[in-house]
Every structure is written in C-alpha cells, then in structure tokens.
Amino acid sequence: MGELDEIIKEFLVESNEGLDQVDCDLVALEKQPDDKELIARIFRAVHTLKGTSGILGFPLVESVTHAGESLLSRIRDGRLPMTPAIASALLSLVDFSRRAIQRVESNGSDSGEDGSLLVEQLRSLTGVPSATGTSSDVDVYSGQPETHRLGEILVEDGHLSQQAVHKALAQQKSGDSRKIGEILVGTGTVVPKAVVQALGTQADVRSASSASTIRVDVAMLDRVMNLVGELVLARNRTVQFAATSADAGFLSTVQSLNLITAELQEGVMKMRMLAIGNVWNKLPRLVRDMAQACGKQVRIEVDGSETELDKTIIEAIKDPLTHIVRNAIDHGIESPEERRSAGKHEEGVISLTAFHEGGYVNLNISDDGGGIDVERVKAKALARGLMSSEQLARASEREILHLIFVPGFSTAEKVTNISGRGVGMDVVKTNVEKIGGTVDIHSKPGQGTSLQIKIPLTLAIVPALVVTSHGERFAIPQVSLVELVRLNATSGSKQIENVRGAEVYRLRGNLLPLVRLDRQLGVEDDRATDDNLQIVVLQADGRQFGLLVDEINDTEEIVVKPLGKHLKNVACFAGATTMGDGRVALILDVRGLAQEARVVSENHRAMHGESLSTAASKEDRQQWLLFRAGTNARMAMHLSSVQRLEEIRRSDVEHSDNQDVVQYRGQIMPLVNVAENFKLEQGPGTDPLEVIVHAHRGRSVGFVVSEVLDVVEQTVVPERSGRRALLGSAVIQQRVTDIVDIDQLAEMALKTATQPSAALIGA
Amino acid sequence: MTATQQLCTFFLNPYFFGIEVHKVQEVLRPQDITRVPLSDDVVGGLINLRGQIVTAIDLRGCLGLEASRNEGSMNVVVRTEEGAVSFLVDEIGDVVEVEDGGFEPPPDTLEGPVRELVRGVYKLKDRLLIVLDTTRALRQKNDEAALRMATE
C-alpha cells in the first residue's frame, strides 16, 4: 500500500507540473499557432497524463485527456488549424484535470464531476463523431506512461509517419544491426538534422526522468538546514579554541573543517533555491483569462525567470505577485479604444523582471497603462480621512503614491469582480515586508506604473552590517543600508550640527537627520565624545536618516533568530543572531528605530497601524527648517520638503523669461526670492546667495533666503493667517514664526514670473 | 507512604528556591550575556544556547531583590510553551527530594513580589525551600508589559 501511495504522490506532483506547463504552452500557442515544438510538447504532456491516469485507474482524467490527445494529434499533423475555440477547450481540459487531480489528492478518487460534456466538446472540435472513439494513430502509445523512443519523438515532432517507423523497426528486427536513426536516414525518409534534434530531445527526457534528480521533502531540507546551522556554530567555537592551540595537526584539521562546513552550508542553501519562473509560469494563463474578462488586450513579458530564490520566499511572494498583475490588468492597462486614442498600441504590456543585487532579489512589475491618478488618490485620502488637506498639500508625490498601500484604500471607481474591493495593495506590502522586503512604486500619468519589490534571497540568512555602539554589537540588515560616512576624527563634532537635540549632518548639501544609536537605546553615558563617530545612512519608508555609531565592524551573513516573547514589544529590534565568537548580537529593525526616533514623517506612522487618533495628536511633531527672509522675518518649512541647501554665487545667476535662474545639476533651476514674494522688506542681500532647494513637481526650485537659522523638532500647530502660501504662524523657539507652504509658494512664484516684474533678487 | 517529588534547587541569597525538576531543561555555568536595551527590567539579556537564542530572566529583579554583587549568574534553563527561558540565579543547589507532607502555603514572613510568585514552601531540616511558580514568574511580566503598552 505504501508503495502505491508513493506512486500516486509522484503522479500528483508530476501531473500538476505537467498541467502548469501545458497552461503556459497553450497561451503561448495562441500567439504562435504554427509553433510545432509547442504543439509537440503539449501533446506529450497530455499523452503522459492520459497514460498514467489510465494505469493508476483514474478513468475520468483518462477519458478527457484521451479526447484532448486526439484533438491535439490532428493539430500536430496539420489536419486542423489552431483556433481560439480549440485553445479554450484545451484550457478547460487543463482546469478539469486539475480539479480531478485535486480530488485524487483529497479523497483518492477522481470522480465527482461529469466530464462527458467536455469530452463531447473536444470530440466535436476534433471532427470525429462521438461513437467512433479515437483515431488510430494515437493508440500506438496507449499503455506506455512515458515515451522516449527515437521513432516516437520523430513522429511527435511531425518529421515522419507512424508507418515509416514501423517499417524501419521491422527492418531492424529482421537483422539490420544499424540504429533506427541510421536506417531512417539511410532510406531517406527523414533528414539527418531531424534525427540529431530528436536524439537531443531523447537525451533530455532520459536525463530528466532518470537518476539526475530526486524529490526531497521540504521538511527534511529544513532539518538538514538547521543541523548545518548548528554545525556552523560548533565550527566557530572550534576555530576559536584552535586559536589558543599550537598543535599543527589540530590546526590543519580545524582549517579543513572550516572550509568543508562553509561549502556544506552553501550547498544546503542552494538546495532550497527555486527559480522565480516557477511562480511566473502561472501568470500567462492568468493574464489571458483576466484580459478576456476585462475586454482588454494584454501581453506579458518576462525577463530573468531563472533568478533563484529560497523556496519559502517564493511561496511568500506568489500571492502578492498575482495580485499586482491582476491590479495592473484591471486598473492599469486601458481598454483597446482608450489606448488607441492615446496613441498607444492596442495591446498593453505587463513586464516582469527579476535580478540579483547584493544579496537581494529585485523584482520589477511594470505596465504601460494609464498610471496612477495622483489627484484621485488625494481626493480619496481626504475622503477617507487618511490625511488632512494640509498634509496632502505638502506631501511629496511619492508619499501620495504610497497611500495606495494603506489598508482599505482602492482607487478603482467601480468594484469589479476582479479587484477594487479595497483589499489588496496593503496585503502586498504586508506580505513583502513580512519577509524582510521593501516595496516601492513609481507612476507616470499616461505611461504606466511600475512596482519595485526588493526581497532577501532567503529568510534564514541575511547580509548585514555589524556595528558597535557603546561596546555592544548590532547587526543592520543591508536592505536598509544606503551608505557609510566616516566623520573626520579631529573635527568630528563640528560636522554635526546640533540644535536642541535634533542633530543634522550636511551630506553633500542635503540635510540628513541624525539618530544616535546609544542615545536612542538609552545606553549612553558621559564618556560620549564625538571623536571617531561613524554615520550609517539608512533608509526607512523612503526617508533617509543617519545612525551615529562608534565603530563599523564588518559585513557578515547572519542567521536571523526571533526574539522571545518577553522582548516582542521592543520596536527597535527585529531579532537576534549569534556571532562568530558565540555571543549574541541584536538585529536592528531600521523602520522601528526610525519611528521611535521620529525621523520618518508622521503619516507613515499612521500607515503602519497606529490608530489615527494617536497619530493625529502627534501629527505635527516634525522637523522644521528655520530661516530668515528679508531683514527680520522668521520663517519655517518642513525639513522633509528640503532637498538640499546650496550657496550660489551672484555671478552665476542668469536671467530667462523674466525669471532669475541658475544652472544646477544640468538643469535650469528657477530662483524664487522668498522675501519678495511675501512683500517683505528686502535685506541687503548676501553673496553668495543662501538657497534652499526644493523639488516641485519633479523640478528643482531654489528659494533664496537671507540666512538658514536652525533645524528644530517640535509640535507645531499653525494658527491660520489667511495669507497666501502660508500655512499659518506658530511659536518656535519662543519666537513667532511663519510656516511656509512651500508648494504653494513655488506655484505662485513661478506663475507670476511669467509676467514682467522687477528684478527678483534683492538688490 | 507519602508522595515525593524532586526539586531542582538554587539560591537567590538569602532565599533558597526550588523548581520541579521535570520543568528544568538544564543548568549552565555563567554565560556570555547580551543586554537588550529598552527591554523590561526583568530581562537580563540574551544567551546563546547551542545556537538557540534564549531570553535570560533576571530572577532577582523579578522577585524585587537587590541585584547580586558577584559577577556571573548561573543559568537555570526552563522549558516553557514558548520555548526555553533561562533564569539567572546566584548559585545552584542539589536536586532535593521532598515529601508532600512537608508542604505549606507561603508563610507571612514572605512579602512583596516574592510572595506573588511562590507556590509554597517545604520545611527542610535546616531551612525553608521556596517553590517558584515558573509560569507565574513568566506570565506576570508579560501582563505588566502589556499594561504598560496599553497605558502609554
């Protein structure tokens, strides 16, 4: 009985794989109806399924696949053209078989559904009256579960007829010692090239089905993996112990143990790797069915399907990927009419790319559809109370796009049966983040949307940067790492600008908020001097911040272990790992850390599950850039809206279209004098000009101010003033400060600039 | 004939404690311990138990006792539903066999947190052996943590 179970289990796995392949091939065949190889492959798979189900006694599967096989053999022989109706019928054959196999798995029998209608449909398409059953040329194979014989391959590939093979076989039996291929070429029935090709196919089939691969239970692999982990640790200790020994023989033994363990670890990791193509294979069918259901024309393009990932990760991204593709078809790609009027090809393209990069896998899913309507997202966010209109006004386009990841958010106007029910992108984000990945989105109106997913190769082992702060080591997952900055030992503290606890660093003119790891973790002591500090520039929720640590040790592959329940509520740590010396090091949760330190903007906190009321009370505790405009006006703007601080020489200022401009990073950047726009008393003007660079609608705009004063972090509740381009006034550092609505100011200034006006830069 | 049970004993000076021996996975010498900043006071840190990372509970802190002066604490590793947890103790005693007849509820002389986490005492010839309720010792902290999180 056990053996039979084993066989059935194998049948289930193989059949499912076979059906997946047929699915893909059928969709491809619709596009290239003349591809003989595709037809041959589909035929072989269906034929194999028919054979095995016959032997194992699953009559339902056998009957439908038999009908399908007959139909396919006629197509293969060129007696029937491939039509959409046939493709649909064959696809429903695949679905039917899949359901039947599912039933075999759950109750051991394939019965439970009526297959006669499908059989009838297939037969009528074949053009064979139902009573006569199969056409004769199929029967040759019956009873044989797998065909690898050269003659059969040649017949399947359509190079010669069954009769010719029989004739050659008869010749061989009657004493001709030559191989069948030679006989066939000798009699001129087939060209040598075809035989060589068939021999290749034969070798492939043989090697695939014989001893070169085996199936292993994943649980078994996991066990081996754990054991190897233990071995690595034992090895580490031995290596450490060996350091105190002078015995040459022992040392060389330890050396080889070291190497072998490393190779073993790598080998086990590789065993768990699967190509991402395993997931992508299911998508062409999904795209076809969905596109038909939506009345759209969509093509899918894949690149990098051989990229390998750990099996658990593959499982974890399967659903998110499917969801993204669904979304792209349903909301992204427009109807053929819309596309035509927009001057695009009627057929939309969804392209998937995957590639390795620094221990991570990047997945890119993009469509060439309509893109995301930012205004609609804004309106929806407002209606749902996710953000206030003020927050929306100052939010970057990126931040707005990221709103689609908020639970319950859907921009689809109408709820279709496919998507638009408000569950979706948030699940995608959660699932990806659960496995330590990140999601990013870009969209261009009218040109499409693209999603970038970055996920680790495996869950168990993560590349990390090991840093020391206050004598303790911490591991930082490299996915969040942007760059490292070493502060000059002698002038270390001078480069950090310290303003009431909110420290910033000018990184190439950009203001980088800083977080001291020791202070954040509450392990700081008086010893703290700013000599030899290192800045680890990290990225969380699309924001960068610098983490100040004492020392940067090394990058290392770490094995992530979860923390016990007593430590679950510490947001700063994602887990722990054991280091080479056997000690435990904590793994920093970069996002948690950033949120604790309040360096990511507050609406992100709301997005990540904090209730809206608590978020609202902290809403305006953000970092502000204080500056002076004109002679004595104190103003502030969100630090987050500042791209860079620049000093520009007056001599570099040029004039174009009634606007002062400057050449900046290969662009022409308009300069806006803040004082003039607010009709403030103009100061004497500095040289060089102090310029705050802000990205406005994808374009850099420079705001000329008299002096950049400070960066402060505090709760600001602006009192409305009703003046244009001002959010209101507030008391910051005991002084009344005007809060500038930077986008509105930019708009105002750039609009007025088109009209003739006085010189914009204060005299 | 009275029923007996075995207790794994340890010292948290000046007290003498015991845990049912079947709950104890192993007893370890002082381990390298990694402190966890921002964690609960009762969390002593993390130790590496043959590749498994185990939370060490500072039992003295847990029971409201002053921190011990000597350097390394011994570890009593206990099996729990959520995996192993290590209790940091001053010194390890023997495995003691006690008779149920000698069991009494906590005496009045025990006060504060100690009393909360104690199941009862056994009167030995020369001293009292306090039986620690491990589930309660572990649970209490969680409730505290949950409470703190809720009120924050």
Notes on the protein architecture:
The complex is a heterodimer of chains A (763) and B (152). Chain A is an alpha+beta fold and 763 residues long. Chain A folds into 5 domains: 2-209, Four Helix Bundle (Hemerythrin (Met), subunit A) (Up-down Bundle); 218-271, Helix Hairpins (Orthogonal Bundle), CATH 1.10.287; 275-456, Histidine kinase-like ATPase, C-terminal domain (Heat Shock Protein 90); 462-607, CheA-289, Domain 4 (OB fold (Dihydrolipoamide Acetyltransferase, E2P), Beta Barrel); 620-752, OB fold (Dihydrolipoamide Acetyltransferase, E2P), CATH 2.40.50. Chain A has 27 helices and 29 strands. Chain A has a 6-stranded mixed sheet. In chain A, a hairpin with a 2-residue loop joins strand 11 (496-499) and strand 12 (502-507). Chain B is of the alpha+beta class. Chain B has a single domain (4-151), classed as OB fold (Dihydrolipoamide Acetyltransferase, E2P) (Beta Barrel). Chain B is 18% helix and 46% strand. Chain B has 3 helices and 11 strands; from the N terminus they run E-E-E-E-E-H-E-E-E-E-H-E-E-H. Chain B has helices at 59-62, 112-116, 134-151; strands spanning 4-12, 15-20, 24-28, 43-49, 52-58, 74-80, 83-89, 91-99, 103-104, 118-123, 128-132. In chain B, the strands form 2 sheets. In chain B, strands 8-1-2-11-10-9 form a 6-stranded mixed sheet. In chain B, strands 3-6-7-5-4 form a 5-stranded mixed sheet. In chain B, a hairpin with a 2-residue loop joins strand 6 (74-80) and strand 7 (83-89). Chain B starts with a strand and ends with a helix. The chains are: A alpha+beta (763), B alpha+beta (152). The A-B interface holds A 229-230, 233, 472, 521-523, 561, 563-567, 569-570, 572-573, 576-578, 582-586 and B 32, 34-40, 42-43, 45-48, 50-55, 57, 82-83, 85, 138, 141-142, 145, 149.
